[in-house]
Amino acid sequence: MVTGGAGFIGSHITERLLDQGHEVLVVDNYYSSTRRNLTHLLDHPNIEVMRHDVTFPLYVEVDEIYHLACPASPIFYQRDPVQTTKTSVHGSINMLGLAKRTKAKILLSSTSEVYGDPQVHPQTEDYWGNVNPIGIRSCYDEGKRCAETLFFDYRRQHDLGIKVARIFNTYGPRMQPDDGRVVSNFIVQALAGEPITIYGDGSQTRSFCYVDDLVDGLMALMATDHEVTGPINIGNPVEFTMIELAELVLELTGSSSQIEHRPLPQDDPARRRPDISRAREALGWEPKAQLRTGLEQTIAYFSELSGT
Ligand code: NAD
Ligand code: UDP
Ligand code: UDP
């Protein structure tokens, strides 16, 4: 089962699982996605798609759960912040209850946002983070922190087979063109010849992982023995400023868009880069795609989508 399976990352996991011969139940309420991400898979004999909000109980029989349901882009998770927290907390309780009853393994797509605006750089899994509990990002950050707590308490109380992945910024085909994240925004703007919107002075950094690499990492984590619970950082440790990203997108699209600066949103982390030593050791995993190559694939996707 893939919760959030119609979303950007979830649709790639679903596709990969089907390719490997698994039967896949996709559970999604389309809060931050559309059916478009799955249309190419709907004729597959091994897929079943269910519209369902994970904040409500769900009784199905499954043996492995990728629990991804949760809006991930700041504009989507801030649109209905109470629902975002409910999705992480009530949604995780329900999926953990389901995993407990069915004895399924369950993987949580947690996030680098549990580190908040980090004071330790690069971020290691033993860093407890610097999160504002009452800011506009808290519904997402604290929701995921509580989801992690629930996962580890179900492990301690019920010995559940849990896997917690802390995902760092991931990009690729099937991001929503209007979801406001930096990679999709810059590409959509560049292709349309509209101004590239850099928030703040653009010196803030992120480390971008191509979706195929991320899916490899999540699947390797799911395949580990019962002892391996994480949390494990999954991301690409190569760090870029937003100015560098904008320049690369302009170069690769050949766009003549101008750069425009907009106010920096509240609590926007100044820098972010994963330490992936644990993933290398426990999973034998590291990302392969360079930003340039991954962006080319993503630009091709958005070009096709917009008909440019
Ligand atoms: P996305 O918004 O494309 O996908 C999330 C999916 O969850 C969507 O299809 C959405 O409709 C669904 N969803 C939301 N609330 C739901 C609910 N209550 N019930 C059922 N479905 C619901 O985002 P994504 O980038 O694919 O992110 C997937 C997961 O990975 C999320 O949990 C996110 O927090 C995590 N993550 C992503 C990134 C990233 O850079 N993409 C980074 C860190 C963590
Ligand atoms: N739950 C679910 N599907 C299941 C089993 C449980 O959605 O197959 C939900 C149910 O709503 C429950 C929650 O998961 O409240 C937590 O389940 P658990 O067994 O841990 O707790 P309890 O049922 O004792 O509250
Ligand atoms: N950002 C930007 N222009 C945009 C969208 C985002 O400069 O059009 C910045 C944003 O302020 C942040 C970084 O890019 O510093 C990454 O933003 P995103 O929303 O993609 O992810 P997150 O902040 O959750 O890492």
Automatic annotation (TrEMBL):
Annotated metabolic or biological route of this protein: Nucleotide-sugar biosynthesis; UDP-alpha-D-xylose biosynthesis; UDP-alpha-D-xylose from UDP-alpha-D-glucuronate: step 1/1
Necessary cofactors: NAD(+)
One MF annotation (Gene Ontology) recorded for this entry: NAD+ binding
Gene Ontology biological-process entries: D-xylose metabolic process; UDP-D-xylose biosynthetic process
Subcellular location: Cytoplasm; Golgi apparatus, Golgi stack membrane
Residue intervals of the NAD(P)-binding domain: 1-298
Membrane topology recorded in Swiss-Prot or TrEMBL: Single-pass type II membrane protein
Cellular component annotations (GO), alphabetically ordered: cytoplasm
Enzyme class: lyase
Keyword tags: Cytoplasm, Decarboxylase, Golgi apparatus, Lyase, Membrane, NAD, Signal-anchor, Transmembrane, Transmembrane helix
CDD domains: UGD_SDR_e
A Pfam family this chain is assigned to: GDP_Man_Dehyd
Main location: cytoplasm
EC number: 4.1.1.35
Family membership noted in the UniProt record: Belongs to the NAD(P)-dependent epimerase/dehydratase family. UDP-glucuronic acid decarboxylase subfamily.
Protein name as catalogued: UDP-glucuronate decarboxylase
Annotated organism of origin: Janibacter indicus
Lineage, highest ranks first: Bacteria, Bacillati, Actinomycetota, Actinomycetes, Micrococcales
